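Suppose you are handed a protein chain with no further information: no name, no annotation, nothing but its sequence. What can you learn? This example shows the usual starting point.
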Amino acid sequence: MTKPYRLYSEALKQQFGCRVHKISIDAGFTCPNRGGSRQQPGCLFCDPQGSGASGIARRLSIAGQLEQGKEVMRRKYRASRFIAYFQPFSNTFGPVEQLRHCYEQALAVSDVVGLAIGTRPDCVAEPVLALLAELQRRTDLWLELGLQSCHDRTLAFLRRGHDYACFLDAVARARRYGVRLCVHVILGLPGESRDEMLQLADEMARLRVDGIKIHLLHVLRGTALGDLYEQGAIRLLEQEAYVQLAVDFLERLQPDTLIQRLTGDGPRKTLLAPSWSLNKWEVLNAIEQEMARRGSVQGCRCRYR
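A reasonable first move is to predict its three-dimensional structure. Written in structure tokens, the prediction is:
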């Protein structure tokens, strides 16, 4: 069945002729917002292990983590090729030779056909981009930049430690090196209106980002955001509101932007809310049903063709 949006996993299947899955790995990096140069307690939503990084066998080497992940992905999804996803914290926050050593370890594992490197807009210095451009000529590489919002007051509330101008600078420099970009955004952030969230979609369309991960704001135990939620200081989206917003967002993107994620599903053990986010496939099906009801597809309301 053809999706009403451009699904990343389908693009991978077309490219490699088989199922390709990401394997999350922890290379031991930190970030400038947590134990790094700024000595801050981290972003508001990030847990001590690195936001969204559950289930990683940190005791193993990079190769060991990948080998274990390969077994799981082969059994669960019948995948035969894999992308090493450097996920927790900021995976470009270190000396270039250390970065090269980590990335090369991953590429040396059999059936690993690509790298996905998660980081922040303020952690992509010129030597890092030069290294990524070099590796991209050898493998399927994505630089994943956590943005979350294009509104500076929201970024300050989230304790991101950078502004939107910093992100725009990182995008411009990555483009000069020809490095592909996947941008992480969050819908439902406190204090943002629907129109402000859709301004973010328009910005992603204007910038013609290669890929995007659209996250639902969910709250994890052990985070500053979790503390605010338990104090009743923030409200979260209901499922129907999120579905409508996600469809509005998709309609405003460029038609060829690859959709790498459409919701958020935090670890069951640490998720405080919303509980409906655990029903990932129900949410994804509801998004497709709403697009069918509207007769819409990704990009049908894009302002920047």
